[in-house]
Amino acid sequence: MTEFMMIFRNDYNPAFKPSAEQMEASIKQWQDWIGGIAAQGKFVSTNRLGFEGKTLKPNHVIVDGPYAEVKEIIGGYILVKATNIDEAMKLAEGCPILSIGGHVEVRNVVPMNN
Amino acid sequence: MLCKLFGIVHIEIAEDITTDTFLLASETWDLKGIPENPTAWLYTVAKNKTTDYFKRNRIVEEKIIPTLKHNQKPFEETDVDLSAKNITDSQLQMIFAICNPVIPPEAQIGLALRILCGFGIDEIAEAFLTNKETINKRLFRAKEKLRTENIKIELPNESEINKRLETVLTTLYLLYNEGYHSGTRNTQLRKELCLEAMRLNYFLIENDATNKPAVNALMALMCFHSSRFDARTNQTGEAILYEEQNKDLWDEDLIEKGNYFLIESAKGQEISKYHLEASIAYWHSTKIENPAKWESILQLYNQLLQIEYSPITALNRTYALSKVHGKEKAIQEALKLDLKENHFYHSLLGNLYTNIDNNKAIIHFKMALTLAKSNSDKLTIENHLRKLN
Lengths: 114, 389
Description:
By secondary structure, chain A is an alpha+beta fold. In chain A, 25% of the residues lie in helices and 36% in strands. Chain B contains 18 helices and no strands. The termini of chain B are far apart. The A-B interface holds A 28, 31-32, 34-36, 38-41, 43, 46 and B 295, 298-299, 301-303, 305-306, 309, 313-314, 317-318, 321, 325, 333, 336-338.
């Protein structure tokens, strides 16, 4: 089993302010999807990324926002275990980001000491 | 307490004195009746026996050893402190000495039962569905290990206590499960194992140093589970499924206590697996049936699986999913689980396919029947098959 990282990308829309109910429904959707991966014993870890962000460029140039030049934003990631990329792609199916216009990037994790 | 006094090196002496004391008690009480304060009686006898032991030992030390060795330190009279505080403190320290990761969990449970709970070797053997010889060997090896590793009977210090407490809780959790899920039909013995786990857990709650949220969460879990003790087996010790239990037999007092400890466990930020399991058990202890109940249970299982995967949690989660999102969706999720050797897996699929595709349901129940080992599991599966035919 190798580790794969799924990166959730979506358009950044600062105007979108979900209601408490919408938030709750969204969290349940995500938890059901992640729970499904965990139920297969393939879950490693996951995190959401907040909207606070800055970008550091060469020569001490700091740009506000993680979305300085792209309008796409990374909303979070999950680390999973899979035998190969195809199996990891199978796990990505049903990811809630797909239902709101976003997409999932699946990448193999290469440990630093390899 | 005696173990503490003697130290782990002489753990057998403490064990012998305890056994002697109880033997004397059963003989004396048989003849003269039970004394007014049996606990005090036992402790006093144990104390006297200990003093005798030290006196004998002193004769050896004073009369015999000096002839071998001249610069002998004078032996000091040992007083056995019988205050309630010393008794509970010693027990608590002993819990930490026994629940030590240097010995395997099974041996920890065995030692806990022998030394902390005073169980006989034959009772421990019955609980583990094995023979006395195996248990004796296991306990002997464990005691040797504690001795060679020079494990002290003391509370770990502040910085270590959380880490060490994890091992203690795991052992108490396993001890409880040993009773709750034991293959033995001896319901009384099973109940005793569970009660002992709860008693030891309560020691941790009573002491400020160990009264942590996870400890309360585990206590809540044990209370909720125990509340169903009388409802979950029939007179012959066969299991009764949750859905078929007579809810009037649930112990309301224990459910109340479970609620109390669950609230206590919510202090602080920590969410342990015991918090999640206790919360699931809380929902199972409520008699109401509404969508919020299964929605909450599903979310708790989702979180629990992210902390710790186990096949049974995965299957339970899929069952909860069927209650929230329907059987079709749950079947899709179940088929992704790689648990084809597990009879619960096939029972779950049999259950999900019932009234959707009864032929498939029968296939899975039959598969479950060939994989199941215990008679009560087989009986349950046969009942399902009978309803389908």
